Amino acid sequence: MLTDLINSRRIQSFRARTQGIITEHYLLLVLAGAASLSLLLYWLAFVQPYGLIPWQDYNQLDLQRISLAHPAARWYLLLAFAAQSLIYLLARRVVRELKGPAAWIVVLGGALAMGLLLLFLFPLGADDIFDNIMHGRIVAVYRANPFVQVIAQYGRDPLRPYVGWPYAPSAYGPLWEMLAGATAWLTDRLAGADVVANVLAFKLVGGLFLAGSVGLVASILRRVNPQRALEATLLLAWNPVVLYETMGNGHNDIAVVFFILATAWALLTRRHILAILALVAGALIKFVPVLLIPAAGLIALRDLPDGRARARFLVIGAALALALIVVAYAPFWQGPQVLSLLRREHLYTTSLPAAAYAYLARLWNPERAAGAISKVTYAWTVLFAIGMGFRAFWDRAWDSFVRSAFYTLMFYLMVTVLWFQNWYSLWPLSLAVVLPPGRAARLGYVFAFATLSKPFVFGPMFLWPVPMPPEWWRELRLGPAVMAVPLAYAVWAAADELRCRVRRCLGAT
Fold first, then answer.
1. Which of 109, 288, 423, 498 is deepest in the core (most CB within 10 A)?
2. pLDDT over 90 for what percent of the chain?
3. How many domains does the chain have?
């Protein structure tokens, strides 16, 4: 009797293990199938029709020009994004049930394959990469200053016809121009001014930052929630918006993402000075990480054991940050004119402040309207960033910086940014993958996918008609239309959170 019972339990245990192995193998096959299907879709809908090599001789090619010849092109791309999103959701659901080396190999291998394939997509979403290439060539080939000299001065350069902003100096920070210069120098030595070689080189720089960002996400989650590490890695590495904007269009926003995630990792491992330096480095690419310094600094002051340690942090951190700024600006400094932020007061598009400016500029002098709106939005942004910093100070959860940074970036992008482009959504999206599942994380995904409506829906609706409507008419509609869904979700999420808190308070009483 006892022997039969033991044998029965062994049989049940064996069946359970066998069933678990079969299920895991089945899920691995589904995940690998999702990666293969995603690759096939990227090839059929993106790379095959808009390959970098076949289209290399078509300067300033973008979705608008493509759609003039093929009106259905943007709808096909929009459908492809929808299909990729479904594959992405399926992969997320599957990967939650997986663990172990095989699953990691499929996730990382799939991400690598997708990234390598999209290297060969012509950057049809924007021509910013060509501006970056030319600014790098100004530094490395012409030994000039991209914050002072403009691309139009180098009209004989073979890459000049591809540029979209020939009369504008660099809009980025000195650290980015150093990286661009180094990349352009190496590419010029190996391939000269070849279009394909330069685009691939600059995309590979973004690919390195993407790989580093994926590594940081995995490292953070393996420390605080190992069960979610694989899922979070997939959420960033397979995200269609991230892959399209980074490996497809070659935007440098992934470098900003890397330094923000590096800050989160440094704070988690109690490397407080390194956290501040990471934000300063990110701000030397684009200024946005400056908004996150209050949160990082206050968390460091909270975590340090005594006044002496806090004083040492403040003195050494400030000295090293200042030294980094001086070293970065030294090769380019010719006065305050090299500060790109000072030139952005009159740049408005696709935002609520842009809509306000479009309205007020018709009532007031445009200079007065721009000055008033920029001052108000800057003040709101700074106050919100400081408020989020104190929120992080009082919140001792491991994700206090991540959550504070996420809300700061979301407030900036949805409410106070003057000039918005849909690839900016990568900043909060990278933090959303680290956050625990919930309203905040969902807002990051909703925002990233909803703002694709600019290039695929509202941009064509308001910016493409011939003749083009007046600028004030366009901007009154464009920003509110693109931000409508994210703002509606944010309001709903805030109301739902408030309702849940009220219920908990009433339940407690």
1. 423
2. 85
3. 2
Structural domain span for residue 391 = 345-509
Residue 54 lies in a domain: yes
SS (H, E, C) 137-172: HHHHCCCCCCCCCCHHHHCCCCCHHHCCCCCCCCCC
- At residue 349, the 3 state secondary structure works out as strand
pLDDT in tens, 325-338: 999 999 999 988 88
Sign of CA dihedral 106, 111, 114, 117: negative
Of 251, 285, 314, which marks where a domain is finished?
Answer: 251
Q: Which of 225, 251, 277 is the last residue of a domain?
A: 251
* Gap between the Cα atoms of 181 and 189, Å rounded: 12
What pLDDT is stored for residue 14 in this prediction?
Answer: 45
For 83, the token pair is 């299909």
Helix-strand-coil split of the chain, %, nearest 5: 75, 0, 25
At 17 the pLDDT is 53
Residue pair 440/464 in contact (Cβ under 8 Å)? The answer is: no
Rounded to whole angstroms, the Cα distance separating 412 from 291 reads 9
Per-residue pLDDT averaged across 426-440, rounded? 96
Q: Token pair of 121, please?
A: 């997509």
pLDDT tens sequence across 356-384: 999 999 999 889 999 999 999 999 999 99
pLDDT in tens, 342-357: 566 678 999 999 999 9
Same domain, 148 and 14: yes
Tokens of 386: 């400081």
- What's the rounded Cα separation, in Å, for the pair 408 and 432? 12
Domain membership of residue 297 (yes or no) is no
